Amino acid sequence: MNSIKGHNAYNQLLNKIGLTYTNAKSKAVNAVNIELINAYWSIGKHIIDFEQSGNIKAEYGDKLLLGLSKDLSLKYGKGFSRSNLQYMRLLYKCYPICQTLSGKLSWSHYVELVSIDEELARKFYENQALLENWSIRELKRQKKSGLFHRLAISTDKVGIMNLAKQGKIVENESDLVKQPYILEFLNLPENNRYTENQLEQSIIDNLQDFILELGKGFAFVGRQYRITINNKHYFIDLVFYHIKLKRYVLIDLKIEDVEHYDIGQMNMYLGYFQIEINDETDNQPIGIILSQEKDDIMVEYAMIGISSNLFVSKYQIYLPDIKELKKRVKQIIDKD
User: Fold this and answer.
1) Labelling 165: which of 13, 63, 229, 319 has CA 20 to 30 A away?
2) pLDDT at 79 exceeding the cut of 80
3) Is 146 left (phi over 0), alpha (psi -120 to 50) or beta?
4) Which residues touch 249 (CB under 8 Å, ≥6 apart)?
5) 253 pairs with which residues across the strands?
6) DSSP string, 31-84
7) How far is CA 242 from CA 51, 138, 219, 270, in A?
8) Whole-number average pLDDT of the chain
9) End-to-end alpha carbon distance in the chain
């Protein structure tokens, strides 16, 4: 038997059996998920059809769900809490055509989605969850950070509609950059009493969350990435590689205002990477200077003649005011 284990043919057989088993298990889980969501959709439809045919007023809706919850729980066990029935009702209301539901998203994903009142925002988060394979935790965090509204206020009405229909599609360097980045997961004080080293270390300690904020396709390369020019060492705070765009992404961290020499230094980093680090399959690198504050006029002047692949963006270490973001998006949409 020991001699058989050493043969390539045996190892190939082992791998084939393992692959067959894991594929079947994954399909079984997916099939169960699809059937569960379809069943919940149907239950939601039954409830709404009953309400409409009986002209049940809103004040009696809660009593209906409460009664159903008690009776169904007694008969079938867990899964029929009043809140769960309410989500089933919302599922049908938000997705009146069952075929529009995706089997790639779990019931927990849909619970998060149907709790979003705005249809455009809901569509965006649904598409983005599918595009980036978000876990429930990731979906919750992006909702809480107002990702849709942050992206929406930097575009026009047509751009907002496209964002809702297809999600955030990364096609060029400008698509990578957010204004602002939300870094609340770092749990840093809002009074600026931390150093750039502490900011960088906190990002490294929460690297998974930071990459989620950056977006899909980022691979971490290193921190304090050393480059040497004329026997002088320079250190780039964070270096990533974007797999889809085939570009290095260099990030410099600032806790105070960005100065003109910061922009010049990042431009030098980009030049070095393009000449010394890039291979023939890589596109031009991208540089992002992340700062809590920036003087837009100074940045505009300092950027004249500078690489179009260099961006200065703000970051916040607290969650934005979602109500204000929604208000600004609505103003864009209502413009003729």
Assistant:
1) 319
2) yes
3) left
4) 176, 218, 239, 240, 241, 242, 285, 286, 287, 288
5) 290
6) HHHHHHHHHHHHHHHHHHHHHHHTT--HHHHHHHHHHHHHHHHHHH-SS--HHH
7) 51, 20, 6, 15
8) 88
9) 77
Q: How many C-beta atoms lie closer than 10 Å to residue 147's C-beta?
A: 23
Is residue 64 within 8 Å of 56, Cβ to Cβ? yes
Could you give the CA distance from residue 305 to residue 35 in angstroms, rounded to a whole number?
57
Do β-strands 181-182 and 310-316 pair in parallel, antiparallel, or remain unpaired?
Answer: parallel
Higher pLDDT, 99 or 287: 287
Residues with Cβ within 8 Å of residue 167, at least 6 apart in sequence:
124, 127, 128, 130, 131
Amino acid code (one letter) for 54: G
DSSP 130-150: HHHT--HHHHHHHHHTTHHHH
Q: Residue 156: which pLDDT band, with cuts at 50, 70 and 90?
A: confident
Q: Which residue has the tokens 């089933």?
A: 88
- Listed by start position, the domains of the chain span 2-114, 116-172+321-336, 181-319
- Residue 135 half-sphere exposure, CB side, CA atoms within 13 Å? 5
Give me the pLDDT at residue 239, please.
Answer: 97
Whole-number percent of the chain with pLDDT over 90: 54
Class of domain 181-319: alpha beta
pTM for the whole structure: 0.82
Mean pLDDT (whole number) for 254-265: 91
